[in-house]
Every structure is written in structure tokens, then in C-alpha cells.
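Deliverable D5.2: sample structural annotation.
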Amino acid sequence: MNEFDIKAAGWDLNPMHIERAESVAKQIAERIPLNTLMTALEFGAGTGLNSFLLKDKLREITMLDSSPEMVKIIKGKIESARAVNLKALCFDLETQDWNNGGFDLIMTQMVLHHVADIDKIVKKFYMMLNPGGYLAIADLYPEDGSFHGAGFKGHNGFDTEALSSLIRNHGFKNVRDERCFVINKKISESETRQFDVFLMTAGRI
């Protein structure tokens, strides 16, 4: 059981998680011309907060997460909401190849900084998108490591110019990013710090 399996049951009880998802989903809808003919993938969906917020704007959303407990939570929410256009799969896109069709939108929130090989995953995103599809990435700007604390093996945020360049190198066009949310996080008993989150969007021609 990993850290996200342990956190799954209480994830939606954190008001910040709800507020962050609402902000990201709102700005995805503002920046990308969503319509009910489009299919979408949420990579590292967690409990599916983004997908549930956007489900009425899209034809179908597939939610992938490598945490069995997160996927269990999503499936329960899908059943409770009778959301017939949502489906959840326990799938590790970092280590497994997707061979089940393409998407018109791939979105991910606060997941990329956990991914070891950014180049590889962006290449997969491009290959999984239909021509004319869109990519939406929400994640942290560069930070000093205090967001996760000691022992974290992922990325301490992203330089958006470097990430934009990497995305363009894989064939994406119209790459743009803007600040979309600020996380107030307690990093010690005596200190709360602000961490800025960006939303980067791009298109596959």
C-alpha cells in the first residue's frame, strides 16, 4: 500500500483539494473549447475531482490512477452519482503502454512532479491524443523542496519555460501557461507557506 492508498479515504475531506480542483477545472474549461463530442483522459486522477467537475462538458472521461484505493473511491463516486460517462481504471501509465484508443483531451493535476521520466510521459501523451486534441497540465512552479519535505524523490516543481520547451519538442503547439491556484500549506508546526500552481495547455496538430 503506497502513500496515496493510505490518503484515499480522506482525500475529498480536505477543502483545499476541492478548491484547487474547482479552480483548475474552471480554467481548463475557459482555455480549451470543450464539447460533448470529446473524450478525455485524466492521468493520475486520484479521487476524480477534476473529472466530476467537467463530466457534463465532455462525452466520456477515462480516469487512470496507479493507486487501487483511489480507484476504489472513484468507482464508488461514479456509482453514487450514476455518472454513465465516467470510468476508472487502475493503470500505471509510467510503466504500461496504453492501447485502448485515443483521446481529445488529456488532463493531469499535481501529478507530473511525481513522474520520474517527464520526457517519456509527454511522448505518451502526444501519442494518445487524437489530432486536434489538447493537453492540460496543472502543477507546481519551482519550490525549495518544502512542499513534500525530506525524502521526496520527485521533482520540486517545474520551470515552465523548460517544460514548455520539452512539450514543444514532442510536437505540441500553442503552449501557454498561467498561474491558476495558490496552495497554503503548513510545512511545520510554526510555518505555513504559499505554493503557486500553474496550468499549462497545449494542442496536438
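Annotation notes: The longest strand covers residues 172-186. The first helix runs from residue 3 to 7.
The annotation will be released with the project's public dataset once the embargo ends.
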